[in-house]
Design brief:
By secondary structure, the chain is mostly helical. It has one domain. It is globular.
């Protein structure tokens, strides 16, 4: 299969594509380089998106102020975060699956996650164009994209761990994701981070 064909099939038949991707014979060095490649490209797109979309408001005190400051002024840091995020998702995918008797390896999971982030490059380009044309439509597309990401990650888990039901994996993954976010919020609150206060929303 050609790369273009793989990208297109990733939208409609992700399980078959992931089955092909995770069985590609590559070494750690090549996979690490691929991870860096998609991290840098996604960072550049995110940086461009935020420059175009939020640059007019970057000096205003808003809830998104800390985030805008990060992506507009620290793209190198953002690329490190993107790189780390890929490994974080892979870790959750690998060891979360093993909690339910899965047998997948971190290496195979990383191949799947890197491929998903590669496809996201094209999705983000489409979203960027959609936002410039119709912000309301783009909002719905962003929601669909997030569901697609969760679903295709579930497909990846099914493939590497030899699970049977993508829907069950999706549901369990969604619950685990919410728990992780809740824990992170509690940790940030414990450490004294308050985005609301920084954004000027004090009562």
């Amino acid at each position: 299969m050609t790369p273009a064909n793989l990208v297109l099939r990733s939208f409609f038949s992700p399980k078959s594509v992931l089955g092909y991707v995770v069985n590609i014979d590559v070494n750690w060095r090549t996979l690490t380089e691929a991870t860096l490649f998609v991290s840098v490209l996604n960072t550049l797109l995110t940086h461009l998106f935020n420059v175009v979309t939020y640059s007019a408001n970057k000096n205003e005190e808003t809830l998104l102020g800390p985030y805008i400051d990060l992506v507009l002024n620290r793209p190198f840091l953002l690329s490190i975060i993107e790189f780390g995020k890929i490994f974080f998702i892979t870790t959750l995918l690998t060891y979360g699956g093993r909690l339910f008797s899965g047998s997948g390896s971190f290496f195979h999971a990383l191949k799947g996650v890197v491929w998903i982030h590669f496809v996201l490059i094209f999705i983000n380009l489409g979203l960027f164009i959609a936002i410039q044309l119709n912000i309301a439509l783009a909002g719905y597309l962003i929601i669909l994209t997030n569901f697609w990401i969760m679903w295709v990650l579930s497909e990846c888990a099914v493939k590497i761990h030899n699970f049977r039901s993508t829907f069950i994996v999706f549901a369990v993954g969604l619950v685990l994701f919410i728990l992780v976010i809740a824990i992170l919020v509690q940790i940030m609150d414990f450490l004294g981070f308050s985005f609301l206060e920084r954004a000027g929303f004090n009562a």
